[in-house]
Amino acid sequence: MPSVNDILTTMEYGPSPEATGEVSAWLKARGRFGLLIDGAMTAPGPGFATQNPATGETLAEATQATAADVAAAVAAARAAAPGWAALSGHERAKWLYAIARNLQKREAFFRVLEVLDTGKPIRETRDIDLPLAIRHFYHHAGWAELSTDDFPGHAPLGTVGAIIPWNFPLLMLAWKVAPALAAGNTVVLKPAEETPLTALAFAEMCLELGLPPGVLNIVTGDGTTGAALATSAVDKIAFTGSTEVGRSLRQATAGSGKALTLELGGKSPFLVFADADLDAAIEGVVAAVWTNQGQICSAGSRIFVAETVAERFTDKLIARFDKLRLGDPLDKGTDIGAVISPAQRDRIQSLVARGVAAGARLVHSSAPLPAQGSFVAPGLLLEAQPTNPCMIEEIFGPIATLATFRTPSEAVELANASRYGLAASIWSENVTLAQDVAAKLVAGTVWINSHTLFDAAAPFGGMRESGFGREGGREGLRAYLRPAATPALTEAPAPDFNAAPCPEPAQPQAIDRTAKLYIGGAQKRPDGGQSWRVTHQGREIGLAPLGGRKDIRNAVEAAHKAAGWSKMTGHARAQVLYFLAENLSLRAAEFEARLAETGHDPAEVAQTIRLAFRAAALADKIAGEVIQTKPQMLTLTRPEPWGVLGIACANRQPLLGLAALVLPAIAAGNRVVAIPAMVQPLVAADFAQVLDTSDVPGGVVNLICGPRDDLAKVLAQHDDVAALWYAGTPEGAARVERDSAANLKATWCPTGRDWAAQDLRETLTQATQTKTIWVPYGM
Amino acid sequence: MTDPHLRNPGISLDRSWFEEITINTPAAEARAAHLGTSRSLKKEWQAAWLVNAIRCMDLTTLAGDDTEARVARLCAKARAPLADHILTGLGLEGLTTGAVCVYPTMVAAAVKALQGTAIPVASVATGFPAGLMPLPLRLAEIRYAVDQGAAEIDIVISRALALRGDWAQLHDEIAAMREACGAAHMKAILATGDLQTLSNVYKTSMVAMQAGADFIKTSTGKEGVNATLPVSLTMVRAARDYGARTGVKIGFKPAGGMKTAKDALNWQILIKEELGTDWLKPDLFRLGASSMLGDIERQLETHVTGRYAASHRHALA
Predict the structure, then answer these.
(1) Nearest residue on chain A to B196, judged by CA atoms?
(2) Separation between Cα atoms, residue A773 and residue A635, nearest integer Å
(3) Which among B58, B187, B253, B263 is annotated as catalytic?
(4) Where does the record place the Aldehyde dehydrogenase domain (chain A) (predicted)?
(5) pLDDT of residue A512
(6) Low-confidence stretches of chain B (pLDDT beneath 70)
């Protein structure tokens, strides 16, 4: 050890390692871990070793859960579900409170164990992972107490299968387990193969607490265990991890009736405007890019800086490298620890090498890397163009790209040029600009003058291929509840779409009526140039246009052009909806006759008028919240429309079934491409005229008649349709869910419903996605 | 502080260096809070850093009831800030504080009490603490203190000029004070508690440096709020930016409100992280404090003996 005199010359910090005594003793005593099933740890089975990424040493062995193990865990969870759901909210709150308290009492143990298993610095497990996990259980103890009052008519889903990643093992456990248990569900959790240990310690803690058997089950293993869980008899899959695995889970659960929330990858932009506090933004990069060695889904891995300050900012950022301390994760003064595995290190290095080969210039910290363990030097890729693979693919390591922009609108354009939409940060002292940019960014979370802030009360989740569903707060809890069921109405069969001429005489008409598709505010003949005979009880009612792929394509383009609708106030949209009700009412008799003609209930007209009024009533009342997170922090949730939304209607209620989906969707600011009821498309053609006369701007509602499931497939596979509602058959719903996997489109499949009994608020909830905006303030 | 190369020659006022700067307060507060928890000093390292804090300390008395005898007692402590057994236990010898800081009328007493040491005497001046005196009197006070033997002058700026944004007059005043200091190094006290906003602190720091301040100093110790970490962060970043533009290293002195050994470590961590290790020495860093020394001495005794210490067993400052 150097003398005081020596240190006075160097003024170095010296080592400050955290003691690992209790944790090492625990690992040594256990050696091999079983699974938590039905309130007991099973005997350890064949499994895998888990390593300390900073040293490569083996810490313990965990069991590879087999399909039979997963089935046993699910059976235990299902058996425990009724009892757990039957507990009062207060009783469940007491359990969650006990978990929060005990996690707090074991905080030092968990933070050391998490460091050993992940390689992340102890400062982070101390200041981020543990406090947030504990807060999550406290917050959800509160939700357990309140959910019956706050979500009237809602019930737990049943049993939840949770699959979590290796980057925040205990925190992600908390994000899944706390809301699931609070809402009255039981859980089967699969931790990541790389990091099972804190989950296993958590299992022991729950056994110590006496949590009822089966309420929480933990199965360790690799992807095959996860796949077994995904196809097991659970009622929901909650997943955090890579976009690729998310896609396969979407496919695996399609048509199963399982609820699904996916929190996936990201390529989040970090926007530095000319008027930003540059030193603050530099520390923002440290938080955004180097927290957890960049292995964080919301990493601000695409930095864009205003050209006027780019040179100063870059110089400051490169100088900042020298202050980063890389090394022993157990040292309390370490900033950058190890990445999760040698494989991950190699993956990062190979992607960065591709980025360099594509023309980017790598600058990185000159700090020496430890001789053993999986370490990557923090760095920046300068001069990367949007074509660079490192600008496109998730690096999941301590390296970000840095590029420049000229104007705020260019910054937004660059930021939104991504298949992901998880998070973003905006650095500017101009509140006017920052709020506008926040509104325009496609991201589930926007941090203004901050990055990497989380709280149990703040919904977090992605847009686009970053997934769907939110975790945290009211939105997060809702994802573990089922709304009261709408009365059922069995779907009617599809008609025959024969486009050939028919020798049977049709009903005589004074002047031939021509029903068309409605695209971009205009009546359009179908691109295929075909119509089919609409019949009732063998009698021809008229000819309907037969829409096809290209009509869907044209309608989606028209809907994109109608972006102004989404920017209008709710008040302005309400006026249009009221006017629509007024015009429908003027033509009520005509619509009633039209419905009666095909044996449908004329009462649909009055129900639709009322629905339009209710949609108008709610249009200006769709509101977010100001939520409590941290001191000196305004945290807002904004329900935002999806943008372009596809809708496929059921057959039973040709007018109401269309209006019940389209009107709430547009009330919330979406533009829709709807496939009306196949059995009576002529109602839709008439409805288009009402839209036309009611000041609904062209492109806001597009109506494409034709074979629903074929057209729905086109919508499902369309990369520029943000969400899809499908109200047809369960089989069709399964196809829609499967076909939506390619771009991870959010889907809602309310099949077989009586739309006269639908709760409009449930529909409206589906019509938006939440953006959470963080704005720190201070003098 | 005798190396002439370390002086800041100053430049003429250039508003473009600071006028468009805005400091984000929550971010500065977050960074300041983070600094203290992201670095850790244990054992010999902690002891060395506490010793360094003594080396960089302006041991201060600035009270209405100061007397020559009181100043002499303070100077005795500056000569021997640690009890012999602690110093020996640390393997050190000849440790003194960085300076002694007093009112102009006490400079002579301090110089006398420090005879035979290399400890400089710093004097406040320019109508300390409010600075609301006619400029000629303020300049005359500087000359008086220098005449009395002060090697360093801690001037106070006109807060009114900073609050009004009258940067030209502020620059001229400080430049005149710098001239009056002659060979004595000048520390410019910004009285950040009066300036209130971090953006004001940054701008005022930059004007003071452009006007030739060798050091920028947070507070007189008499404002409602004295040295805080976010204010210090803002000032050292201003010093860093000034250095990047001019190549001149500016010293920094937080003063007032710092009482504990932990404070001494936190401020040094701030300096090392934001300015660099080069700044962790008396010619570029001073801690304006008095009671802090007592806590440091207790901590160091604990380090040496392994027993928790009592302040009544240490010599008073």
Answers:
(1) A779
(2) 6
(3) B253
(4) 48-482, 537-747
(5) 80
(6) 1-5
Confidence (pLDDT) at B4 = 44
Give A777's contacts in chain B (Cβ within 8 Å): 26
**Tokens read off for A505:** 């005489």
pLDDT digits (tens, 9 = 90+) for A118-156: 999 999 999 999 999 999 999 999 999 999 999 999 999
* Chain B residue set in contact with A, beta carbons under 8 Å: 20-31, 34, 37-45, 47-49, 51-52, 55, 90-92, 196-197, 237, 244, 268, 272-273, 277, 280
All residues of chain B having their beta carbon less than 8 Å from the beta carbon of residue A280 are: 23-24, 27-28, 31
Tens digit of pLDDT for each residue in B169-213?
999 999 999 999 999 999 999 999 999 999 999 999 999 999 999
- Judge contact between A672 and A641, C-beta under 8 A: no
For the question of residue B262 being annotated catalytic, the response is no
CA–CA separation, A429 and A278 (whole Å):
10
CA torsion B260→B261→B266→B267, rounded to 10°?
A: 80
Q: Give the nearest partner residue to B91 out of A4, A10, A277, using CB atoms.
A: A4
| Omega within 30 of 0 (cis) for the link into A169 | no
Supply A448's token pair.
């203004």
Nearest to A763 by CA among A558, A620, A614: A614
Task: Look up B3 and say whether it is catalytic.
Answer: no
CA–CA gap between residue A689 and residue A239 (Å, rounded): 44
| Domain interval for residue B108 | 13-313
Q: For A670, list phi and psi in degrees, rounded to 5.
A: -80, 160
- Nearest Cα neighbor of A294 from A336, A351, A355, A324 is A336
CATH number of the domain residue B124 falls in = 3.20.20.70
Selection from B80, B142, B140, B78 nearest residue B109 by Cα? B78
Q: What is the per-residue pLDDT for A32?
A: 98
Q: Which two tokens stand for residue A243?
A: 């976009």
Q: Determine, yes or no, domain membership for B4.
A: no
The reply to whether residue A333 touches residue B38, judged by beta carbons under 8 angstroms, is yes
Residues of chain A with pLDDT under 50: none
**pLDDT, position B2:** 44
Question: Can you read off the two tokens belonging to residue A652?
Answer: 């039973």
Structural domain includes residue B209:
yes
To the query of whether residue B253 is one of the catalytic residues in this protein, the response is yes
| A1: contact with B, CB 8 A cutoff | yes
Bridge partner residues of A146 (DSSP): none
Q: Give all domains of chain A, ordered by start, each with its CATH number.
A: 62-263 (3.40.605.10), 269-472 (3.40.309.10), 517-629+641-769 (3.40.605.10)
**Gap between the Cα atoms of A455 and A446, Å rounded:** 14
Does residue B305 lie in a domain region? yes
Q: How many domains does chain B have?
A: 1
CB A20 within 8 A of CB A112: yes
Please provide the DSSP assignment of A336-372 as one string. Answer: B---S-HHHHHHHHHHHHHHHHTT-EEEE--PPPPSS
Q: How far is CA B229 from CA B221, B232, B257, B299, in A?
A: 15, 5, 11, 22
